[in-house]
């Protein structure tokens, strides 16, 4: 009885699925999906090497500081870093005093109250504060940006596939819309207010090219030249640190744990074999 | 003919073999023990104060607005701290008392910074059972010794916040602090 | 409930004697996983995965209890509290990555455990109850994992909760009230997050309880083995301790190595980047996908694209997805071949491997975007899945000529040695 019911249920499910597959399949073959501008012109992130890649990768402190400088002078005009506190910057090599100064000079002050009247006010940031963006809320951010919301950048490097390479490619990948694309898809012309970038999923994004010219940010002596490519790479590295500040600790701990586990497992194997030595199995 | 258990005559189990086997087993179990012990460290350590809590372990307070005879309450490590600008009379009252006669003998000088005798900074935590004493706020009862009064069990503190009467065993605790400038104190 | 030659617990130590006569807990452990439990001597490495599943549950419970000390189950701050764990709590990153990847490791070993049972016929009499309780554990695990994934309150958390509770909305008439009841609102919000947290904390302990029943039921007939031939004499078995404790110790080491590689060097590999974006009810991710361990079922859910008479395709998909798991409860009665082990079932074995490939294909399609050709492929694969259990297995068990079985485990071992 169980088998009879099972067979009926099975025939129904399998049969209907096969019917659906045939229906869908014939539609797919008779009318294959048309190519879209996205499917032809979207590019995967560029190949790029970072010091933090690989199982033993470490951050390059000088690069992180350069990246922070780019963030501070360019990105922070629109984007916050709400999960990162100023004090965290000590991890990338700034002294306690330097962090205090960075916080106090930060243009985006912290929402507060006037201690005398209790009215809404702002105060200078302290090292314990999170790095604030310029907008008090999302509505204000949209209003100031043509209804596009500049996302918080704290986790952006982990919130995108191949985050670091993607950020680098996006920032250094703005270009004029290819003539070929316009010829094939005239309706895919970048709308007003958007900007063409082949590394962006929909090809057009609201953010205008933020890093426009070499030397836009002045690096201290002894650093590489601040080309658009270099600045993109540096800020991508900085944002990777912002998203994963414990990476070095993780790699270091992981190496120790693995060595220990390999030894312990080797011993466990020998122990297992010696215990079983007198038992055939 | 094949058998399940190799016999001792085959030399599979010599005495040295047994000893070697014991050694391996002991080593394997010891490794497991060390591993388990090491894992305990992060499991226990995670309960310690986190980085954001530690970052707030020291604060800076602007004291420029506190007039003589006034006091403010501020929050430090999630506990109240009293910062009091003593009047000359209050200083005199505190110095008149013979410190050695007190339950917790300390002079006002010992409880303030050199040259800043008028700035009395103490934790606002009664040393009896941890209530917040009255006396720092405007119009609060200061008790019969003019300092602080803890309403929970009636501990009286004088103008140097020393225990004078009631169940509390110690003077109000003076936290670690430094004057960053004449108007800014860093507590902690 | 055990073999007559099982060793009896005889404590030498007077303290243990005292304890044993008052609360025989040491005796219980001794008989369950100690020298008092005789186990077939010929188990292969696939028999390691039961103990490893238990270890994985232990890791999840310990790391989970600790994460709960720092997590805040409130829609406004849940996401930030997870980041607080990752950045500020001492070793918080380690514990959170261990918990997130521990879930994946748990499913890996449980799937291997299940497929071992499928190949070696471990679900057959007299072990049906072991199989049924195992499936209950599997269902509880899926519920726990789903609710746990909602807690960080990222985009995938939110939309996963919305889609999965939306499945109940497909039920005619009562669907929408049930969905609203599950969520405590009209969309996932604080109420849902809080109850998911509560149940996510509770269910692992329920799982632990059912595991005890699972092991209890196992100890009635004793463990099965790769030949599928029942234990006949003492020489067929070895005591669990030290033989299988040693082997499981080695297995645990290998498990931890794989776990450590994942945790320390690719902690986000199995996760989805979108879950690092805070939940936003106003914007849907491009592709909503569950965690990898749900992909085969997700593929079956989406495979139904055509209405059947008056039954909408969506409802069919929901029914089929639940059916794909529930049919496993009938497996002991669907496959009534007297031979257990796939080693001695030439025809069954071939279909078993087809099933393995089929489930992998379903998994791949479940993780892929819901577009052709993946839909078509998943339809064929899902059709095979149902046909395999509901039609093919019963037929095979009727027509198959099994290979000759060894007379006993001992004989099989000796034949292998020779």
Can you characterise this structure?
The complex is a heterotrimer of chains A (281), B (188) and C (418). With 281 residues, chain A is mainly alpha-helical. With 188 residues, chain B is α+β, with helices and mostly antiparallel strands. Chain B has 2 domains: 43 residues; 136 residues, Rieske [2Fe-2S] iron-sulphur domain (Rieske Iron-sulfur Protein), CATH 2.102.10.10. About 3% of the residues of chain B have low confidence. Chain C has a single domain, classed as Cytochrome Bc1 Complex, Chain C, CATH 1.20.810. Helix content of chain C is 63%, strand content 1%. Chain C is built from 16 helices and 2 strands. The mean pLDDT of chain C is 94. Chains in contact: A-B, A-C, B-C. Chains B and C meet through helix 1 and helix 2 of B and helix 5 and helix 16 of C.
Rg over alpha carbons of chain C: 23 Å
The stretches of 5 or more residues of chain C where confidence is low (pLDDT under 50) are none
**How many beta strands in the DSSP annotation of chain C?**
2
CATH fold title of chain C: Cytochrome Bc1 Complex, Chain C
Assembly of the depicted chains: heterotrimer
The number of domains of chain B is 2
Report the average pLDDT across residues of chain C: 94
Task: Give the topology string of chain C: H per helix, E per strand.
Answer: HHEHHHHHHHEHHHHHHH
* CATH architectural label of the largest domain in chain B: 3-layer Sandwich
* CATH fold label of the largest domain in chain B: Rieske Iron-sulfur Protein
Alpha-beta classification of chain B: alpha+beta
Number of helices of chain B: 4
Specify the CATH class of chain C. Mainly Alpha
Biggest beta-sheet profile of chain B: 3 strands, antiparallel
The CATH architecture of chain C comes to: Up-down Bundle
How many strand segments of chain B?
9
């Amino acid at each position: 009885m169980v088998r009879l019911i099972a067979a009926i249920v099975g025939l129904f499910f399998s049969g209907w699925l096969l019917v659906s597959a045939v229906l869908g399949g014939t539609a797919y073959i008779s009318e294959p999906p048309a190519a879209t501008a996205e499917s032809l012109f979207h590019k995967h992130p560029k190949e790029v090497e970072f010091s933090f890649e690989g199982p033993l990768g470490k951050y390059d402190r000088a690069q992180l500081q350069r990246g922070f400088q780019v963030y501070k002078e360019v990105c922070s005009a629109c984007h916050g870093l709400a999960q990162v506190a100023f004090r965290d910057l000590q991890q990338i090599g700034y002294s306690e005093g330097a962090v205090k100064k960075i916080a106090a000079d930060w243009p985006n002050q912290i929402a507060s109250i006037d201690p005398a009247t209790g009215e809404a006010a702002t105060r200078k940031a302290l090292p314990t504060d999170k790095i604030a963006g310029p907008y008090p809320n999302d509505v204000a951010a949209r209003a100031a940006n043509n209804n596009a919301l500049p996302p918080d950048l704290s986790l952006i490097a982990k919130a995108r596939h191949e985050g670091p390479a993607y950020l680098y490619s996006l920032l250094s990948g703005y270009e004029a819309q290819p003539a070929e694309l316009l010829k094939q898809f005239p309706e895919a012309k970048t709308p007003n207010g958007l900007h063409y970038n082949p590394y962006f999923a929909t090809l057009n994004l609201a953010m205008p090219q933020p890093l426009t010219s070499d030397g836009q940010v002045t690096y201290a002596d002894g650093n590489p030249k601040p080309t658009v490519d270099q600045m993109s790479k540096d800020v991508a590295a900085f944002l990777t640190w912002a998203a994963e500040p414990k990476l070095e600790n993780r790699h270091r701990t992981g190496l120790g744990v693995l060595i220990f586990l390999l030894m312990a497992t080797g011993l466990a194997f020998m122990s297992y074999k010696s215990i079983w030595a007198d038992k055939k199995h | 003919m094949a058998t399940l258990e190799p016999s001792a005559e085959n030399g599979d189990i010599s005495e040295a073999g047994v000893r070697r086997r014991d050694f391996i087993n002991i080593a394997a179990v010891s490794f497991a023990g060390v591993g388990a012990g090491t894992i305990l460290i992060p499991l226990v350590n995670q309960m310690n104060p986190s980085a954001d809590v530690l970052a707030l372990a020291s604060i800076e307070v602007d004291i420029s607005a506190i007039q003589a005879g006034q006091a403010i309450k501020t929050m430090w490590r999630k506990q109240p701290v009293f910062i009091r600008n003593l009047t000359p009379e209050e200083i005199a009252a505190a110095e008149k008392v013979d410190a050695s006669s007190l339950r917790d003998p300390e002079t006002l000088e010992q409880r303030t910074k050199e040259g800043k005798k008028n700035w009395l900074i103490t934790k606002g935590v009664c040393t009896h059972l941890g209530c917040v004493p009255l006396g720092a706020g405007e119009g609060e009862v200061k008790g019969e010794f003019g300092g602080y009064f803890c309403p929970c069990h009636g501990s009286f503190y004088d103008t140097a916040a020393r225990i004078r009467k009631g169940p509390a065993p110690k003077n109000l605790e003076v936290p670690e602090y430094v004057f960053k400038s004449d108007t800014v104190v860093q507590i902690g | 409930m055990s073999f007559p030659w099982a060793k009896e617990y005889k404590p030498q130590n007077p303290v243990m004697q005292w304890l044993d006569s008052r609360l025989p807990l040491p005796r219980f452990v001794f008989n369950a996983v100690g020298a008092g439990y005789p186990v077939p001597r010929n188990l292969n490495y696939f028999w390691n995965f039961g103990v490893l599943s238990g270890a994985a549950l232990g890791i999840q419970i310990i790391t989970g209890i600790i994460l709960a000390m720092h997590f805040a189950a409130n829609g406004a701050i849940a996401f930030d509290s997870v980041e607080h764990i990752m950045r500020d709590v001492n070793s918080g990153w380690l514990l959170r990555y261990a918990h997130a990847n521990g879930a994946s490791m748990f499913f890996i070993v449980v799937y291997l455990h299940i497929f071992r049972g499928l190949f070696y016929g471990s679900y057959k009499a007299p072990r049906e109850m072991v199989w049924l309780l195992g499936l209950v554990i599997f269902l509880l695990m899926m519920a726990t994992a789903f609710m746990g994934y909602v807690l960080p309150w990222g985009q995938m958390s939110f939309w996963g909760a919305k889609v999965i509770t939306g499945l109940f909305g497909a039920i005619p008439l009562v669907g929408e009230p049930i969905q609203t009841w599950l969520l405590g609102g009209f969309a996932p919000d604080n109420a849902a997050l809080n109850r998911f947290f509560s149940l996510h904390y509770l269910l692992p302990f329920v799982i632990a309880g059912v595991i005890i029943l699972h092991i209890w039921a196992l100890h009635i007939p004793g463990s099965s083995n790769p030949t599928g031939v029942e234990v006949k004499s003492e020489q067929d078995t070895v005591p669990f301790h030290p033989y299988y404790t040693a082997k499981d110790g080695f297995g645990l080491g290998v498990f931890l190595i794989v776990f450590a590689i994942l945790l320390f060097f690719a902690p986000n590999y199995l996760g989805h980047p979108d879950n690092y974006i805070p939940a936003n009810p106003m914007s849907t991710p491009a592709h909503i996908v569950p965690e990898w361990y749900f992909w085969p079922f997700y593929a079956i859910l989406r495979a139904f694209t055509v209405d059947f008479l008056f039954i909408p395709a969506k409802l069919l998909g929901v029914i089929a997805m639940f059916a794909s798991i529930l049919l496993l409860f009938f497996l002991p009665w669907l496959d009534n071949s007297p031979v257990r082990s796939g080693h001695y079932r030439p025809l069954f074995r071939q279909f078993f491997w087809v099933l393995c490939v089929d489930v992998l294909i379903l998994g791949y399609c479940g993780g892929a975007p819901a577009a052709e050709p993946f839909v078509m492929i998943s339809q064929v694969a899902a059709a095979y899945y149902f046909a395999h259990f509901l039609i093919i297995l019963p037929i095979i068990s009727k027509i198959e000529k099994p290979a000759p079985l060894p007379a006993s485990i001992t004989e099989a071992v000796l034949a292998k040695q020779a």
